[in-house]
From TrEMBL:
PANTHER family: GLUTATHIONE S-TRANSFERASE L1, PROTEIN IN2-1 HOMOLOG B. It comes from Brachypodium distachyon. One of its GO terms (molecular function) is glutathione transferase activity. This is GST N-terminal domain-containing protein. Transmembrane segments: none annotated. Gene3D superfamilies: 1.20.1050.10, Glutaredoxin (3.40.30.10). SUPFAM superfamilies: GST C-terminal domain-like, Thioredoxin-like. It comes from the Eukaryota.
Amino acid sequence: MNSLAFLCRPSPLTPSASPSISLSVPQSSCIKLPRSRPAAHRHRTAAAARISSRTVAMATAAAPPVIFPKENLPPSLTSTSEPPPLFDGTTRLYVAYHCPYAQRAWITRNCKGLQDKIKIVAIDLADRPVWYKEKVYPENKVPSLEHDNQVKGESLDLVKYIDSNFEGPALLPEDSAKKQSAEELLAYTDEFNKALYSSILSKGDVSEETVAALDKIEAALGKFTDGPFLLGQFSSVDIAYLPFIERFQIFYSGIKNYDITKGRPNFQKYIEEANKIDAYTQTKLEPQFLLDQTKKRLGIE
Ligand SMILES: N[C@@H](CCC(=O)N[C@@H](CS)C(=O)NCC(=O)O)C(=O)O
């Protein structure tokens, strides 16, 4: 398995009813995605529904705020599901609900307010429809985007593509220092993920490599002071990192008993503020579900 495959393990999407486990991560803004129901209704809690005035103020610096309607998510398509009417002019974002790469494209679509323009199609990776590889995306991975009679993939490319080819607030600032930082941080995402992953796999303490990677993000968060995000204001760089940070926070807390935000005030604030952004929280799964799935995958009890 590739080193990050544990983050993407295909599995049933029916989280068990919140058993008690002490996780130092907020659970209130997460969704449950029952696969078997024809239209899975998500629960948006007061915390998830609230966009803080501060976050709105930051978002409005570049563009008016987008108010996100509560969205019904479709059930995941399986090997027995018919394909959608492909290439009929509908723009479709193919995701797996548990996939952090797909989550990047999904957050982008939400941030731009494209809920009506880009339809979410969920694929059950554990029981993948054959037509997905044959007719949609030969790479057979998620995410992919069907748009203008073409299908494109690769999450970071899709974040850029959706940002540049659709309406909605720009997700990268114009400022040249920020653009430069964006490039550096985007180039660093895979290395960050690998550094964080390494300690999850090892039996020992959290490694120096992991600590250095976390400290690097803590320092990056201190660079621009016009907001708590990686470029100050919320941007596509945050979209690239958050799905992974979300998982690492859960896994480090639940598996290594290590709080990735401890002694890192910028990081703490970062996650707190991100959890006020509806475009992001609407894409989150239950921490307990993600933890159980990963523990099972890693053979940890
Ligand atoms: N580099 C790709 C990675 C996408 C990826 O690995 N997605 C996983 C799900 S999280 C997948 O589709 N796995 C299915 C497979 O590899 O067969 C991206 O950034 O989009």
